Amino acid sequence: ALPPAPGPWLPAPGSPAADAPGTAPGETAETAEGVVPPRGDEAAVVPAPPAWWIPPPHGVHRIHVRTPDNRRATATLVAAPPRVPQPPERTHGFLVQLYSLLSARSWGMGDLGDLTDLAVWAGRSVGSGFVQVNPLHAAVPGKPTDPSPYRPSSRRFPDPVHLHVESIPEYGHVRDRATLDDLRQDAAALSEAVLNKGALIDRDAVWELKRQALELVVRVPLTPGRRADYCDFLAEQGQALEDHALWCALAEVHGPDWHTWPEALRDPRSRGPPAPAPSCWTGSTSTAASPG
């Protein structure tokens, strides 16, 4: 139900909406003016949409409006179903903290590969209907890492420490296999210490190993299909992804508190020497971000 607000949202005394049946607490009525949803002892009128209105898909949308006299406005529209869909029948599932869901193949803490194994096993072997996990948002860069998943640096982007490195297609094409094997052995030692020796999970040590492995993986040229997927991802995430990546890079050097950074770096839109833009299609740097 909508909260009371001035204007067309509240029925005027004596109007069809105000006198409509079904406006008692917990009831809903439809009138020529719109829909009267239940709201305690009051009723708020939701105006009926015009005939040309096409409901947007569920999600968060940005609406941009320009009037004939060139005035502009922007607003956020959240489209949600009237209620959360109910499961067809009662079911059971698992609630897990992903970092603790490690296996002998993990890199010292649970990752998305372990989560996949649990979900497949739970669904096929014991008939579970869901697996619920802790937040996987990006942590604040720097050491020591804040172990709490409820104090992230971003609620939009995930933390790469949860990646299952071997699942990245380019992992199998890394040329420096000796270094990669050494990293994998160190990761196995971390898992062994946690699983069999009572050691605590060392998130910083896990990320250091994965970071080194990812630096090897990113050197592998992408196939045309993977390059197209990468370009689509960059276009979909837009400026927000660039801002987050830039902040992470600066935080690794200057610390997570941007108030202490050099003044020229505190504004993400500050002007500095132009840097070459990464070319989405060539994997190199150029002055254009599209094929030419």
Q: Could you characterize the architecture of this molecule?
A:
The protein is of the alpha+beta class and 292 residues long. It has 3 domains: 16-79, no CATH class; 97-217, no CATH class; 239-286, no CATH class. It has helices spanning 16-19, 112-125, 177-196, 203-217, 224-254; strands at residues 29-30, 34-36, 38-39, 42-43, 46-47, 59-66, 72-79, 93-96, 130-133, 137-138, 154-158, 277-278, 285-286. It has a 3-stranded antiparallel β-sheet, with no helix packed on it. A hairpin with a 5-residue loop joins strand 6 (59-66) and strand 7 (72-79). Helix 3 runs antiparallel to helix 4. 11% of the residues are buried. Mean pLDDT is 81; it is low at 1-37, 39-43 and 283-292.
Task: Give descriptors for this structure.
5 helices; disordered N terminus; alpha+beta; two-stranded antiparallel sheet; three-stranded antiparallel sheet; disordered C terminus; 3 domains; 13 strands; single chain; 292 residues
Q: What is the percent of helical residues?
A: 25-40%
Question: Could you list the spans in which at least 5 consecutive residues all have pLDDT below 50?
Answer: 1-37, 39-43, 283-292
3D shape: globular
Q: Using only CA atoms, what is the Rg?
A: 26 Å
Which class do the helix and strand fractions yield? alpha+beta
